[in-house]
Amino acid sequence: MVQIFFKKLVRLIITILAVTALTFLMVNLLPGDAALTVAGIGASSEDVEAIREDLGLNHNVLFRYGKWLFDAAQGRLGHSFRTEESVLSSILDCMPVTIELIIISQFFALSLAIPFGIVSAYKSEKAVDKIINATAFSLVSIPIFVMALLLIFLFSIKLNWFPATGYIPLSEGIFANLKSFILPGVSIAILEWVPLMRVLRSDMITTLQEDFILMAKAKGLPAHRILLKHALKPSCFTLITIFGIQVGHLIGGAVIVERIFALPGIGSLLISSIYGRDFPMVLGCILFVSISYVCINFIIDILYM
Q: Which one is predicted more confidently, 199 or 53?
């Protein structure tokens, strides 16, 4: 157990190093001059050169990556080229928004996937199963930005139940905060619950054919107890894997939803930093996303064991 743990830990570190190195190289290959962007329009060549020297852009890529890696290992991610704010503090400010969005969206996704997956497996190839699967495939075929706009039109403009855009901090009230996350969370969940439901259905159909399930039926146990206590747990391995991948993907991948609903999360910060050629902020966001992603997969591996 200990050997496996440390072996996976080494792989985790190697993966993070590979991701950050590749990102650093690609960011430096982007067209344009970061020093010119920071200096602004109308700056003299002397000013641009001074900024380039101050930012360390005159050194080669390997030297700059080594310095950045050394500083990052000590928790120093530098300062933003645009705002001059600490990269770490900016990421920490955005992190609660992204985490809350992930928790709410995955709560909705699991709330749909688990009951519908169980019912679909129990009623396999019957009318109920076909209706659930047809509905799921119909929903997953809708692009996420279209779903987000449809929800805004229906629940914000027509019914006026939830705010269309904007983020309300938790400090201003739990209910108001949750209202600002309902539509973004549902927008993601409507797409995310389908693969979760499908893998749970597939695994549970196989589990329901096992001998211990037949034994439980022979003992006269009610169907709901067999499904929830005996069949659900051994059918959740693939579900956990897909769930972990989705959570890792959403840490930096909920960009469209965050932009549509004006949520100041990690995804929005990353996109605005790329547009502004803010190298330290881009690298800080990528480091955070990559560490989160591999740590989630690491946790899943440990849960398997």
A: 199
The pairs formed by 286-291 with CB atoms below 8 angstroms and a separation of 24 or more are 286/19, 286/20, 286/23, 286/252, 287/16, 287/20, 287/72, 287/77, 288/91, 288/95, 288/251, 288/252, 289/251, 289/252, 290/15, 290/16, 290/19, 290/20, 290/23, 291/16
What are the angstrom distances between the C-alpha of 2 and each of 5, 138, 164, 178, 250?
5, 46, 49, 41, 30
SS3 of the chain: CHHHHHHHHHHHHHHHHHHHHHHHHHHHHCCCCHHHHHHCCCCCHHHHHHHHHHHCCCCCHHHHHHHHHHHHHCCCCCECCCCCCEHHHHHHHHHHHHHHHHHHHHHHHHHHHHHHHHHHHHCCCCHHHHHHHHHHHHHHCCCHHHHHHHHHHHHHHHCCCCCCCCCCCHHHCHHHHHHHHHHHHHHHHHHHHHHHHHHHHHHHHHHCCCHHHHHHHHCCCCHHHHHHHHHCHHHCHHHHHHHHHHHHHHHHHCHHHHHHCCCCCHHHHHHHHHHCCCHHHHHHHHHHHHHHHHHHHHHHHHHHC
Which pTM does this prediction carry?
0.77
- pLDDT, one tens digit per residue, over 201-225 is 888 888 888 888 888 888 888 887 8
